[in-house]
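Intended use. Records like the one below are meant for learning the mapping from a protein sequence to its folded structure. Do not use them to infer anything beyond what is encoded.
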Amino acid sequence: MERICGTNLMLLLLFCTNLCILVADASNNEARRPRYRRILKKRRHQVQSANIYSWPKVALRSLSRKSPVFDKDKSSKPHIIYIIADDLGYNDVGYHGKRMGSIADTPAIDALAYSGVRLENYYVQPSCTPTRASLLTGRYPIRLGLQVGNIEAPDPTCLPLRETTLPDKLRDLGYGTHAVGKWHLGFSRPACLPTRRGFDSYFGIITGFASHYDRNRNGINSLYTNDTVEWGYDGIYSSELYTQRTVDIIKNHNSKKPLFLYLSHQAAHTPMEAPERYERDYQLNYPHVWNRIYDNKFGTKRKKYLGMVKSLDVSVHVVTETLKETGMWNNTVLIFTSDNGGRGGGGGNNWPLRGKKNTLWEGGIKGVGFVHSPLLPIHVSGTVHKGLMHVSDWFPTLVEGVAGGVAKGPLVLDGRNMWPSISQGQSSPRREILHNIATPIRSKDTLDKQGVMGWRERLIWGEPSNLSFNPTIKAAIRHGAFKLVTGPRGRQAGAWEPPPETRRSSLPMLAFDREDICIRLYNIDQDPLEKNNVAYKHPHAVHRLLRRLGFYDRKSKMPKRGVDRQAVPRIKKSGDRLAWRPWLA
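Structure written out for the chain above:
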């Protein structure tokens, strides 16, 4: 009898213990719910309450409106909306900046990113033209001769005419292709214009930058509709003008035909111009932090820049709501990316990363990016993709992965199809990224593009001419966790710059990171801020990556840059205003 009672008591104690464990697990699971759900709820509330998100020509509802369940019709190709922000810093979106001291307020962008797939190991080129060229061709800029600088008027260069572009491929697959915003891939010949490179229509500036209100630069107009100079729309801010054009395209599009829409914003590129209502929104929501920004040239630029970022967020909100209203949203893949790092100096901010635009440090080439779509399986929505990805990967990813076509052509592609990784959570097929090789254009450019090896480096590595690749040339390559950076360090371009609103000083270059060092190796997985040069600890990795740089350098095309004296802006008949036009046959 005592044995039976003892057994029952043990069973009762075991039952009580298991019950306590279940209750504890339930409470822990509640506490461990993903942080992004709470942030997403907060962002949605901000979108609903902010009156700046109302659009005068489009009656829009809240971003948090639930979409109908998607009818998975295999015969219907998804619509593709590709939005690219200009000079957007890594720390200038809310889902990065809130943890890093930035007050960049982007609730619409954050809501899409947190419920989509965030690309947190995604790389672009260090400036505007190379990134756009790589995106539209799927090839590294060294193969195009566009690896150094940007195409600026009156430069006779343009995206090589032999290249098959992303809109070319998608148009062959039945897509309607439209481009809105900044082109920046050359216009010296009529064949260089967007409507000759695969787009059915185009509206935007053909140059690299211009005034956000009249599309003029130095008194010369660069706004085009298709292949014709456009003289209207003075006084309308660029983000709002391009967004309204995008809304018109979506509303007039036959939803039964797949749509590829390339929205390339001018914001947040110079000149620093933004509507006052966007700045007032920061003053209302962040009065204490806003007033902490110094009233000097850097502080003034920062305030204007944040207003420009807000205009981007409003644009994203309006575009997504228009897609929902037209019934296209449930069959849409939306991609949001930056083209390079922020400019620094009060403009774009890349904290805590090192460097800025036009550099090969992480701050210059690590892009902001995410994919959002109702077509994504629920198990990948709200996740972070940490596999390596490069901007050239969008070409095969969209052509093969999304549209179901064939990306390969007569020319070698450097991009990889990342759609299985993004949509199914598979590992990235990419192990290596050539960030760039800045081939010197002319002999007088040598001092700008090349560094000088000190005697210590020559003693360790040998003479530059005896190595697989000349390490005095500015270049960078990533393989696995290791990133090799060669060439000059740069001065302030290689520093760590916190956002001005924190009132923290920029971190100087490390004392041991001398200017006469041309070979730097970083383990990005362990040292994402690039503070510890481990080249001397891993000489085999250095030589292996130098050989890879030499391999790519032998396949590179020599860049051509210059001013064409024939490129004279022409005078419009109706007045004395000038406009850029193609000047070569």
